[in-house]
Specification:
Layout: E1 2-11, E2 14-23, E3 26-30, H1 37-44, E4 52-59, E5 70-73, H2 95-104, H3 121-133, E6 139-143, H4 151-168, E7 171-176, H5 179-185, E8 188-193, E9 196-202, H6 203-208, H7 213-223
Parallel strand pairs: 3-7, 3-8, 5-6, 6-7
Antiparallel strand pairs: 1-2, 1-4, 8-9
Helix pairs in contact: 3-4
Length: 230
């Protein structure tokens, strides 16, 4: 269990986010644009602007260190990799570890000698996942990693993430506007509104019997094909 007891972000004495989260295996953080979900993810990664202040207290069996115990999968795989450097040169883990991850992700080893623009969107996303996992993180942070993918590839990527989480033993915090992908990937959901958690619980319980009008609005809007972006 990873217990984020306090994640508080302020800017010029104005409170932007003040939340707590419990992550057992997989938790989706959902909310409309400007709700604070993306800001919370950046805070955990140490990526907040210098003018913002962060108070972070957590109880976990490891220290939060981006790139080590914390892995990160960004929203757009097309901009996550250097287009001028061979894929293999963008990894830091031993060759054996990278090749094993490629095997688990269904990637051919010869892709390591290619450049990012030569790969498809699905291949790029798999490579980015491998990069996020190369140092064996304990918590994987995901920033809407399926947004740029077609429905079939999205389903494949979510399935791979579920399988890898079980095999590699990492937990997931998934920031998304996509209710269906949250349902497919995460056992629990936390709903954030104006920097506060307004509802949380088992994913199926929240989706089937939401208590807050805000949660109902998010679900209804999502299923009406309207998207709430980070």
């Amino acid at each position: 269990m990873i217990n984020i007891q306090k994640l508080r972000i302020t800017y010029k004495d104005k409170e932007l986010v003040d939340i707590s989260l419990e992550i057992d295996e997989s938790l989706a953080l959902i909310g409309e644009s400007g709700s604070g979900k993306s800001l919370s993810l950046k805070a955990l990664l140490g990526m907040l602007p210098k003018e913002m202040e962060l108070e972070l207290e957590y109880d976990a069996p490891f220290e939060f260190v981006a790139g080590e115990s914390l892995g990160f999968i960004p929203q757009n795989p097309f901009t996550a990799l250097s287009p001028l450097t061979k894929i293999k040169k963008q990894f830091f883990a031993p060759k054996e570890r990278v090749e094993r991850l490629f095997d688990e992700l269904g990637l051919d080893h010869d892709l390591l000698d290619r450049f990012a623009p030569e790969l498809s969107g699905g291949q790029l996303q798999r490579v980015v996942i491998a990069m996020a996992l190369e140092k064996d993180p304990k918590l994987l942070l995901l920033d809407e990693p399926t947004t740029a993918l077609d429905p079939k590839t999205k389903e494949q990527i979510l399935g791979l993430l579920r399988k890898l989480a079980k095999k590699e033993g990492f937990a997931m915090l998934y920031v998304t506007h996509d209710i269906l992908s949250a349902e497919a990937l995460c056992k629990e959901v936390a709903v954030i509104q104006k920097g506060k958690i307004v509802e949380s619980g088992k994913t199926q319980e929240i989706l089937q019997k939401p208590k807050k009008e805000y949660t109902k609005m998010l679900i209804e809007a999502n299923f009406a094909n309207r998207e709430f972006r980070v």
